[in-house]
Specification:
Blueprint lengths: L3 H25 L4 H10 L2 H5 L4 H4 L5 H22 L5 H30 L2 H37 L6 H30 L12 H16 L4 H11 L1 H15 L11 H30 L1 H13 L3 H9 L4 H30 L5 H42 L1 H9 L12
Helix pairs in contact: 1-2, 1-6, 1-7, 1-8, 1-11, 2-16, 5-6, 5-8, 6-16, 7-8, 7-12, 7-15, 10-16, 10-17, 11-16, 12-13, 12-15, 13-15, 13-17, 14-16, 15-16
Amino acid sequence: MRWVPSLYFAMGLPFVVLNMVAAVMYKDLGVTDAQIAFWTSLVMWPWTIKFLWSPFLELFRSKKFFVVTTQLATGVLFGLAALALHLPAFFAVTVALFAAVAFSGATHDIAADGVYMSELSATDQAKYIGWQGAFYNLAKLVATGGLVWLAGWLFERFCGPGLDSAAASRSAWSVICIILAVIMLAAGLWHMRSLPSGGAAASGRTLSDGLHGLREVIVSFFAKRHIWCYIAFIILYRLGEGFVMKIVPLFLKADTAAGGLGLTNRQIGLYYGTFGAGAFLLGSLLAGYYIAGRGLRRTLFTLVCVFNLPFAVYALLAWFRPTSMWLVGGGIVMEYFGYGFGFVGLTLFMMQQVAPGPHQMAHYAFASGIMNLSVMLTGMASGYLSDLLGYRTFFLAVLLATVPAFVMTRLVPFTFDERTKTK
């Protein structure tokens, strides 16, 4: 408890900021929906290919070293982004800085998951998976809730005779980037003291050993029993989420004349950061103990149902566009409870059924990279699809995209006994 919650909060924050909060920021700064969806998805590429350098992390220093170093580096990069927002070419410069944050964040994820799997038994992995998922996604709610709300509040304070709306938006989001920098730097300093090493570097290994290890990681990954079935399951589990992730904040902010709900940043932040935060944390924690008590094999179909069915909420919001903020907030609560409850199932499945073996850390990175590839590609296409179809038809199409996940959950086999520690 000294390091699992804080570690996974620090893991989730850069990912969520690049994946979701950046979309709101660029929307405020006048960038088009199609550009926002494409570029904020493209910069996520390091999370997809992180398995390529995961074997090399085992050659130099401990896993803790890479966790702390990348947290500090990410803090510095967010500080530079705060300055870059005031440049004429702010979009290109911040996208480049966010790409560097993505590389740092992806490296952090490899090492952090390596510490988690090395230090905890399979029983403890299941026990703390709820805390892991809760705090990973608490970062999502802090960022999309608290920080987005704060950006709206700051905009209202900055916007006045001295600053026009564009300058006020840049100033508000610069403050948000500074806050992100402080959080990540603080996390790095905390984990210098509290984080276990996760194992020392492999002694006597060279760079050529790392290249050979990379080949061995890839070959052995695809040689795993049922691997193609597992890959299909990983891709399909989050397919619907990949389509909606970029579009939901844009839909909530869009004018009612354009088919959106016309919410302000403060309203979006309030719903995510209060109602959504409570529902998500409750869902994540309940799921962890639910899986620990009954086992992943018996609970997986329930998890995938709870994870995907709430996407119907946004279809209903798009079609009926309620003006009652209780209905909008209730829809967000339902969606976030389902997300929190269902997300931990895929994480634990990859740890216990895909990753086990001689290259556990690298294979988990490989599996999570495949998962992020699905989210990245669907996110890149989502802006163009929503422009083409309109919000109403788009969210109905997303519901169809969730159907294969239900089918695969009934078919996916289990290779390893989830009650024993696998390495």
